[in-house]
């Protein structure tokens, strides 16, 4: 895999050189991992004029195996625990002869940016911006394979939960059980805090599980994801507890499901981000839920659960093939509950069968 990371760094170096920088200092955690293969917390990566160096305060090879192990072709500089990798990385760039250094300003505090500038007064600092995040949008086969496994793990955990007794158990208990099952099936952990909402809490985006117990007649919404080798899936489903759903539950579920289907069908190379959002949003607006729809219909997934692209009304840009995204509309009716349906998919051209669905748990409205 070292050659994969070397190729990624080479692409970034070309972009830096085109912008007039002969070195770059990458400090965003996901960006460092993307370019190096693995790094301890707080590490930065210097794309130097002579050699690429991982700068950190702990040994990056200690207890590191497989996907968390840095690429073999990287230089490594281990600092004392009190050291600042960003400052040390800038000093290393200057020592290697760099005249200009691009930094990720959005990943540096003002104080840290000043500290970097103070130790290399003769080096011109520029903003690398979101160059690495943009490079990460289109995934290679290995990345998509990891996402596919992450999705399978989440499907397995959710499927097992649905086979258990749910009535009387708390949202918090169910969330903890799901996260344990993710690890049992091979995940490094949950991709994000698992959300379980019952009754009036169902359908709320990002709902933090409470001690509210599941009751007959409830909507039960579940949102979870698995972290597999750093890549994060996402899935949400909504169910009814009891023998049969009420009419209002069937109607609301069908509306959200239709919106989610419209968003999925809009995923194709060349489609504008905002058009995907609009396809799903129009369905819910027509059903009278325009004010209840969230600020976006989906987002990219990868080394971060929430990354570019954003599928939102004001988003600029168009989809490429091999871009993993979520489509996750939801509607919450205050005091009653709501529905959220979320899938992880990979954008594919129609000639290849259209969007590849990674999360395959049924979207039928099940009565549990």
Give the SSE map.
Blueprint lengths: L1 H17 L5 E3 L2 H8 L7 E4 L4 E5 L18 E4 L6 H11 L4 E4 L6 H10 L4 E4 L3 H6 L4 H22 L8 H14 L4 E2 L4 E4 L20 E6 L1 E3 L2 E2 L2 E6 L6 H19 L7 H14 L11 E3 L6 E5 L12 E4 L2 E4 L3 E4 L2 E4 L9 E2 L11
Parallel strand pairs: 1-5, 3-4, 5-6
Antiparallel strand pairs: 1-2, 2-3, 7-10, 8-9, 9-12, 10-11, 13-14, 15-18, 16-17, 18-19
Helix pairs in contact: 3-4, 6-7, 8-9
Write up this protein.
There is one protein chain. The protein has a six-stranded mixed sheet, sandwiched between helices. α8 runs antiparallel to α9. Helices cover 33% and strands 20% of the residues. The mean pLDDT is 95. With 368 residues, the protein is an alpha+beta fold. β5, α4 and β6 form a beta-alpha-beta unit. It is built from nine helices and 19 strands. The two termini are 45 Å apart.
